[in-house]
From TrEMBL:
SMART domains: EXOIII (SM00479). This is Or 3'-5' exonuclease KapD. Residues 6-186 form the Exonuclease domain. SUPFAM superfamilies: Ribonuclease H-like. Signal peptide: none annotated. GO terms for molecular function: 3'-5'-RNA exonuclease activity; nucleic acid binding. It comes from Bacillus weihaiensis. Keywords: Exonuclease, Hydrolase, Nuclease.
């Protein structure tokens, strides 16, 4: 894998409003980050942390129950400013634009919105992006997008750790990526040569004619 193809698998978990009716000012904030940094086809580094939300610091009961986290977990997390710096540091590990891979497009949408709301520079402006869920959908000809853990189960595998934990989901995305890339390479392999390719049949027929 060349340097320009170094990969950053990222997953975020977000805050949720309390109940189905959203507060008119509510917007999702990143509260957990999981990163899998892949270099030369191997996992070089991983990172995981909670992130303290800025605008809605008290996490809803619905969010805590869904993600199986506590307010204490979130309060002990890094600040949003530090979180952006860490992402920038990963981007800077490669001299060429690093490729960011996510399952779905929400992670980068929410990150961009959170950066705007908090006056921070979006850390991946020069990066390439790949939505693996869309690649998976196109590759298998599915009509709808498949959930992360359903996709890995369709391969007869199991997800890493616990679903909706950022690092576990980032690692599961990496594992699906490897499976899909392997299938792509398999389909691109040339067909084995036929006996006609191996033998000059004109010479064989000439021998029979004599």
């Amino acid at each position: 894998m060349s340097e320009k193809n170094q990969l950053l698998f990222i997953d975020f978990e977000f805050t949720m409003p309390e109940g189905k009716m959203k507060h008119k000012e509510f917007f999702p904030e990143i509260i957990e980050v999981g990163i899998v940094y892949v270099k030369d086809t191997e996992v070089s580094e991983t990172y995981s942390s909670f992130v303290k939300p800025v605008h809605f610091p008290k996490v809803s009961e619905r969010c805590k129950n869904f993600l199986k986290v506590s307010q204490e977990n979130i309060d002990a997390g890094i600040t949003f400013k530090e979180f952006v710096r860490i992402l920038s540091d990963y981007r800077g590990k490669s001299k060429s634009p690093i490729t960011v891979i996510t399952w779905g497009n929400m992670d980068m949408k929410v990150l961009r919105q959170n950066c705007q709301r908090n006056g921070e520079v979006f850390p991946f402006e020069t990066s390439e992006f790949r939505d693996l869920s869309m690649e998976y959908k196109r590759f298998f000809g599915d009509r709808n997008q498949t959930g992360l853990w359903k996709a890995v189960e369709d391969y007869g595998k199991k997800g890493t750790g616990k679903h909706h934990r950022a690092l576990d989901d980032a690692m599961t995305t990496y594992h699906i990526f490897k499976l899909v890339e392997e299938d792509k390479r398999y389909l691109q392999k040339p067909s084995p040569p036929t006996i006609g390719d191996r033998i000059d049949l004109t010479q064989v027929l000439k021998n029979y004619a004599t």
